[in-house]
């Protein structure tokens, strides 16, 4: 997806700021897709790096909110497809 399109969609689905620090505490540093711990010393595109995953993808109208986000590995998030 083009950068500009993503930004526009993000604005439309925006509910509240979602920070990694809060998700880490809530999800206890664990990937909610595979259940394995996330390695915070790694950065994308390392497959073990942490990402904020939208349970229902932004492209499918999912909101950007704590309710619709979870901690996930870069690998798991990428396998799921649409972010
Ligand atoms: Zn995972």
Summarize this structure as a short list of keywords or feature phrases.
83 residues; alpha+beta; DNA Binding (I), subunit A; binds zinc ion
Describe the protein in words.
Helix content is 31%, strand content 12%. The protein has 83 residues and is an alpha+beta fold. It has a single domain (3-80), classed as DNA Binding (I), subunit A. The chain has a two-stranded antiparallel ribbon. The longest helix is centred in the N-terminal third of the chain and has 11 residues, at 3-13. It is globular, with a radius of gyration of 12 Å. Zinc ion binds next to strand 2.
Describe what is shown at a glance.
This protein has 83 residues and is an alpha+beta fold. The protein contains three helices and two strands.
Helix/sheet category:
alpha+beta
Principal-axes shape call: globular
The percentage helix is: 25-40%
Largest sheet: 2 strands, antiparallel
Query: Which oligomeric state applies?
Result: single chain
N- and C-termini, Cα separation = 10 Å
């Amino acid at each position: 997806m083009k950068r500009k399109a993503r930004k526009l969609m993000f604005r439309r689905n925006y509910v509240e700021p979602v920070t990694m620090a809060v998700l880490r505490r809530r999800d206890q540093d664990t990937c909610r897709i595979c259940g394995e711990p996330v390695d915070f010393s790694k950065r994308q595109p390392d497959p073990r790096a942490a990402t904020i995953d939208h349970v229902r993808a932004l492209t499918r109208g999912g909101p950007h909110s704590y309710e619709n986000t979870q901690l996930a590995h870069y690998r798991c998030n990428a396998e799921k497809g649409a972010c």
